[in-house]
Amino acid sequence: MDHDATGNPIGILRHESGQNFNCGYDGAMPLVAGVTTPAQEERLWAALQSPEHFWCRAGLSTVDMAAPYFRTDGYWNGSVWMPYQWFFWKTALDHGQADFAWRIAERALALWEEEVQASHACYEQFSISSGRGSGWHHFGGLSAPVLAWHAAYYVRGTITHGFDILRRNCQVTSDGLTAELEISGREGDFATLVANLGGTSCTAEYNGVPCPVATRRPGIFEVTLPKATAGKLVLRK
């Protein structure tokens, strides 16, 4: 917000062009908070997945690339940061956007692998213009999201979902999975749970009712679950 001399808000803080200064990750955070309307969700997901706005060769830009204040030589602006992509990856699963969640993880893993092979460094962020790592080169904590993506899609026995699913008493066996779930969110919406179980096929029941299962890659199953519910999930290979 912009404020007057006494500290009272007088309007939205804008760039000299008149553009809202909120055309970045912050402007899309209502998705993560779960406070958007369906129309707002549609608009924000479209922008995040658009090559004209946020989706670039290095992943998700921190600032809308169509904004007049976007630049390619900034520290935050013009870069891709793994931890912030992790939040939108989890949120994509919360919103049943399993394809986009996979795209975020797949691109981040490829980018990270390429940089580590070239430099043996664990950088803070990645340049949108060059695709190379930048900032400090020993930020070990920023590798945690990369490890989470790798585990979700490449490590057997890993169960992954967004913030809206609370998982209790989860047991993974050679035959599948059982878990007690509490799923928050808007009634009528759906979330995705990713189960890395191995095998070639899988069936799913939630509270005794069959639910859709998609295979992302061999052994990786994506289960669609209704929000605003609670109950028992059973996966059988």
Features:
five-stranded antiparallel beta sheet, Glycosyltransferase, 29% strand, 5 helices, globular, single chain
Topology, element by element:
Blueprint: E1 2-3, E2 9-11, H1 25-33, H2 38-48, E3 55-56, E4 59-60, E5 79-80, H3 82-94, H4 98-119, E6 125-127, E7 133-134, H5 144-154, E8 159-160, E9 165-173, E10 176-183, E11 190-196, E12 203-206, E13 209-210, E14 213-217, E15 220-226, E16 229-236
Antiparallel strand pairs: 1-2, 3-4, 5-6, 6-7, 8-11, 9-10, 10-16, 11-15, 12-13, 12-16, 14-15
Helix pairs in contact: 3-4, 3-5
Which CATH-level-2 architecture of the largest domain?
A: Alpha/alpha barrel
Rg, rounded, reads 20 Å
Q: What portion of residues is helical?
A: 25-40%
CATH fold annotation of the largest domain: Glycosyltransferase
| Overall average residue pLDDT | 95
| Helix-strand category | alpha+beta
Q: Determine the N-to-C terminus distance.
A: 53 Å
Reported for the largest beta sheet, the result is: 5 strands, antiparallel
How would you summarize what this structure contains?
Helices cover 28% and strands 29% of the residues. The protein has 237 residues and is of the alpha+beta class.
